[in-house]
Amino acid sequence: MDHTYDDQNIFAKILRGEIPNATVLETEHSLAFNDISPQAPAHVLVIPKGPYVCFDHFAAAASDAEIADFTRAVGEVCRLAGVAADGYRLIANAGRDGVQDVPHLHVHVLGGRRLGRMLSPVS
Ligand code: AMP
């Protein structure tokens, strides 16, 4: 997959402060904000501040400090969103088959109701 970063993507604009967001958490290397079109009572997106397209790009190219910060931010968001006790789902869509709309790594934190099975079985 091409990891060329498009700095005109909407999350890059959020990081530059060009469009607003409903911030849940900001750390040195990460930002979390409410999804604009929530698919569950709690739906928060966690993004690294660095220019990473998707998870495998981030895992290969980010510094240990960025990876630690991002991982801890996701965990903290689970607590801040109130889903840590009853459970939640993390989703990181990537590329064509993952149906990724915004080409800047983001982890969806979803919860607040029973979410159902993840995918349909392969028949
Ligand atoms: P994905 O399909 O995994 O790339 O998810 C992109 C997500 O970004 C969707 O859930 C959108 O609702 C969300 N989204 C798009 N624009 C914004 C925005 N300006 N603020 C917050 N969430 C957004």
Describe this structure in a few short sentences.
The protein has 123 residues and is an alpha+beta fold. It has helices at residues 10-15, 55-61, 64-80; strands spanning 23-26, 30-34, 42-48, 88-91, 107-111.
Features of this protein?
binds adenosine monophosphate, alpha+beta, HIT family, subunit A, 20% strand
What does it look like?
The protein contains three helices and five strands. With 123 residues, the protein is an alpha+beta fold. It has a single domain, classed as 2-Layer Sandwich (HIT family, subunit A). The protein has a five-stranded antiparallel sheet, with helices on one face. The longest helix is centred in the middle third of the chain and has 17 residues, at 64-80. It is globular. The two termini are 27 Å apart. 25% of the residues are buried. The model has no long low-confidence stretch (mean pLDDT 97). It binds adenosine monophosphate. Residues 10, 19, 21, 33, 35-37, 45, 93, 100-102 line the site of adenosine monophosphate (AMP). Adenosine monophosphate is lined by residues 10, 19, 21, 33, 35-37, 45, 93, 100-102.
Mean pLDDT rating: 97
Distance between the termini: 27 Å
Unreliable residue runs = none
Instruction: Return the CATH architecture.
Output: 2-Layer Sandwich
Give the helix proportion (percent range). Answer: 10-25%
Structural class designation: alpha+beta
Topology, element by element:
Elements: H1 10-15, E1 23-26, E2 30-34, E3 42-48, H2 55-61, H3 64-80, E4 88-91, E5 107-111
Antiparallel strand pairs: 1-2, 2-3, 3-5, 4-5
The structure holds adenosine monophosphate.
The site of adenosine monophosphate has 12 residues, from loops.
